[in-house]
Amino acid sequence: MVEAIRFRDDDVHEEPAVSLDAFLDQSNATAVRIEAGEDARLLLPLLERLALIEVDFPVFGDGRGYSAAQILREAGYEGELRASGDVLVDQIAYMRRCGFDAFAPDAPIDPKVMDKALELYDEVYQATTDGRAPIWKRRHG
């Protein structure tokens, strides 16, 4: 894994993330890792304890992590939400809209290519966690 890409101004979280099972069983950890298929809703009563939630993307086509991010952000999670694994540059804009603010891709991403991809589209068509109104809502109220 390459160095994480962060879109946050706060301190980097250095504590290693523990598995969801380990966190739920005993942990006083402040970082947890959710594997594909695990239920992010199990963390909802414990969000205030967490500084980092890392969501695994085992393959780029596995979209379950998007749902996990949306659930966590809508529930009020404000800590670092990191997508890790098979994260591709063309997914980062969509991941950001779901609430991810840090990325730990398996392969390096060229920062210039990422910046260009993030600036490509000004408008969004779906609801987002970043506060931008979808274009249809702006058009039709």
Summarize the structure.
The chain has a single domain (5-140), classed as Rossmann fold (3-Layer(aba) Sandwich).
Helices and strands, with pairings:
Elements: E1 5-6, E2 18-19, H1 20-25, E3 31-34, E4 52-57, H2 64-74, E5 80-85, H3 92-98, E6 102-105, H4 111-119, H5 135-140
Parallel strand pairs: 2-3, 3-4, 4-5, 5-6
Antiparallel strand pairs: 1-6
Report on the architecture of this protein.
By secondary structure, this protein is an alpha/beta fold. It contains 5 helices and 6 strands; from the N terminus they run ββαββαβαβαα. The protein has a single domain (5-140), classed as Rossmann fold, CATH 3.40.50. It has a 6-stranded mixed β-sheet. The mean pLDDT is 84. This is DUF934 domain-containing protein.
* CATH fold name: Rossmann fold
Measured between the Cα atoms of the first and last residue, the distance is 44 Å
What are the segments in which pLDDT stays under 50 over at least 5 consecutive residues?
none
Reading side by side through the largest sheet, how are the strands ordered? 1-6-5-4-3-2
Count every helix, treating DSSP H or I runs of 4 or more residues as helices. Answer: 5
Tally the structural domains: 1
- CATH A-level architecture: 3-Layer(aba) Sandwich
Fraction in beta strands:
15-25%
The secondary-structure class comes to alpha/beta
InterPro entries: UCP030820
Organism: Parasphingorhabdus litoris
Protein name: DUF934 domain-containing protein
